[in-house]
Amino acid sequence: MALEYSFTARLWLYPGEAGWYFLTLPEKLAAEIREDTAPFRRGFGSVKVTAVISGAGWSTSLFLDSKSGSYVLPVKKAIRTTVGIGVGDQVHIHLEVSEPA
Fold it and tell me: Taking residues 83-92, what's their average pLDDT?
């Protein structure tokens, strides 16, 4: 059984040399996902997901962010380029979490 979620968030760039781009999940949704995935979270509380933005999908993980108390979703360059998004853009995301067999 897959768990599905959708949300809208702004794309932001992590300050520093790494140049990672992220979306921060709304706190209420993060709490729901934390509760729903408790039995099968991975190291450091990460959750494997399939994410889709404007029809472009990829496999990744949600990571707990101690600063915001939420999850962050990394958005790789290939996806940002394909859908034409940049820092500050509002993005609608669909997530699917598959429970391990």
Answer: 98
